[in-house]
Structure formats: structure tokens, C-alpha cells
Write a structure and sequence with these properties.
Layout lengths: L1 H23 L8 H7 L1 H17 L5 H13 L2 E2 L4 E2 L4 E2 L6 E2 L4 E2 L4 E2 L4 E3 L11 E2 L4 E2 L4 E3 L3 E2 L4 E2 L4 E2 L8 E3 L4 E3 L19 H25 L8 H4 L3 H8 L1 E2 L2 E2 L12
Parallel strand pairs: 1-4, 2-5, 3-6, 4-7, 5-8, 6-9, 7-10, 8-11, 9-12, 10-13, 12-14
Antiparallel strand pairs: 14-15, 16-17
Helix pairs in contact: 1-3, 3-4
């Protein structure tokens, strides 16, 4: 009975992992189970980890690490045997994915290539991220430390996450900032990675608009003759130099900067 229940559970896990690949990878829609098992590195890595993790929990020495090392050599995906992986994990392509020893991954999580669930130091105990259910992690993202990524959240490509992520939000940037995407919270891997909000770009755009407004204001003051008087040191300067300063350049008058020479002269 025990052997039969173990076989039944193993077959169910294989079906769910293959089903995750079919539902979240358009290239696998019309592909048979045997082909997915033979040619999808993400599925191979997850199934190999399930075996290694079971042996690790059974305190079998050496073999779990050998399985993990062999899986990394074949698939390019490194999962520590002690990491806890929930059902339905799909690693798309997967080259360069690293999942650390104390990482915990919930159900139906999607991870793209180059993702790291890593630690931040040499401390012992819990030192890797906890990723809850229905989370999508974009290519190249780095999740570092014992943080928690909440249910249904999405991590943008190349985002560096070092703080907890609330449920049902999108995180972008370095370090990662939670943002809203059109006010909607749609679970699943179908994220518009191209049009994710960029808080750094928004800040730069705001500064550019402010600078343009200040330049227009300064030009208006100059045209109305309300420019501030030159400091005494500048007013008492050489006449020829003053004449050169007042000449107009190709885009407008050339004004000497007020204050110390930035070159140190």
C-alpha cells in the first residue's frame, strides 16, 4: 500500500509539473508528455529536485547533492536539495536560475531565466526568500535575504528585491519598488513586461520638466530686462571681458556663471 501511494503521488506531481509547462509556455501547448520530460530543462530540474529533496529529508548522505549537481550540469538550473518547492512550479528556459538552501517557493509560481533566490551574508538559519503562491518572477531578477514575496505579486525583469513585497503588487527597479499597473491585480504569468512602470524614469522626467520650466522663466526675465545685477567683482572686471560676456552666442546670450570656478582656478 505504501509503495502504491508513493507511486500515485509521484505520478500526480509529474502531471502537475507538466501541466504547469503546458499552461504557461505557448511552445508546449501541442507537445506530448514524453517530449516535455525529455526536452524542457525547467521541468527536468524541478522533478530532479523533488527526488533530491525527498532523499535529503530522509537524511540520505551525499546522494541528494549529487543529484542536484547533475541536474545543474544538464539544465543550468541550481536548486539546493533542502529548498522547499511547492506544486506547479514552472521554470521557463531556466538557464542561470539559482534557488538557495532555505528558500521556500509556493504553489503555481513562475520563474524565468537568470533569477536568483539568494542570501545576503554568511549568517545561519533562514537566509533566503519565501515566495508565496501565484508569484511571477521576471528574467534576471534577484531576490536576496529572508524576505517574503506576497501572494499573487509580480517581480519585473532585472529587479533587485531586498525588502518584503506586499501581496498582489508589481515590483520594479533597483532596489525594487512596489508599483501599480493600471490599478488591476491579475494573477498569473501574463504580465506586460514592456510597459511596467519605471519610478526612476518618472523621477528623471519630472526633473527635466522642472529644468525646462526654470529655463523658460529665466529667458522671460532676461527679455523683460529684469535680470539680476552682476556682483561687484564681476561688474568691476575688464571691459573687454565684459564685452565678450555680453555677446550673444548662436542660441542666445552667453552669461558668465556666478560663483567659484569648478575647475579650481
Amino acid at each position: 500500500m505504501v509503495g502504491r501511494s508513493l507511486i500515485t503521488a509521484t505520478v500526480a506531481e509529474i502531471r502537475r509539473d507538466v501541466g504547469a509547462a503546458r499552461s504557461r509556455d505557448p511552445a508546449a501547448l501541442d507537445v506530448g508528455i514524453v517530449e516535455i520530460l525529455a526536452a524542457w530543462p525547467g521541468v527536468q530540474a524541478v522533478l530532479a529536485h523533488r527526488v533530491a529533496h525527498a532523499l535529503h529529508r530522509g537524511r540520505v548522505p551525499l546522494v541528494p547533492r549529487v543529484i542536484a549537481t547533475a541536474a545543474r550540469a544538464v539544465t543550468g538550473i541550481e536548486i539546493h536539495p533542502a529548498a522547499r518547492i511547492g506544486p506547479g512550479l514552472f521554470i521557463d528556459h531556466g538557464m542561470g536560475v539559482v534557488i538557495g538552501e532555505t528558500a521556500e517557493v509556493g504553489a503555481d509560481v513562475t520563474i524565468y531565466q537568470g533569477v536568483t533566490l539568494g542570501g545576503t551574508g554568511f549568517q545561519t538559519g533562514k537566509r533566503h526568500p519565501t515566495v508565496q503562491d501565484n508569484v511571477t518572477i521576471g528574467s534576471g531578477a534577484k531576490l536576496l535575504g529572508p524576505i517574503v514575496v506576497g501572494h499573487g505579486s509580480k517581480v519585473g525583469a532585472n529587479t533587485v528585491v531586498i525588502h518584503d513585497v506586499p501581496p498582489n503588487c508589481t515590483v520594479v527597479g533597483n532596489p525594487g519598488h512596489p508599483v501599480r499597473v493600471e490599478g488591476r491585480r491579475v494573477e498569473g504569468p501574463d504580465t506586460d513586461w514592456v510597459h511596467l512602470p519605471d519610478p526612476i524614469a518618472d523621477a528623471i522626467k519630472g526633473l527635466s520638466l522642472r529644468i525646462a520650466a526654470l529655463e523658460r522663466a529665466a529667458q522671460g526675465e532676461h527679455a523683460s530686462g529684469e535680470a539680476p545685477e552682476a556682483p561687484p567683482a564681476q561688474a568691476a572686471g575688464n571691459g573687454a571681458a565684459g564685452e565678450a560676456d555680453s555677446r550673444a552666442g548662436p542660441t542666445g546670450p552667453v552669461n558668465r556663471a556666478i560663483g567659484p570656478n569648478p575647475a579650481g582656478g
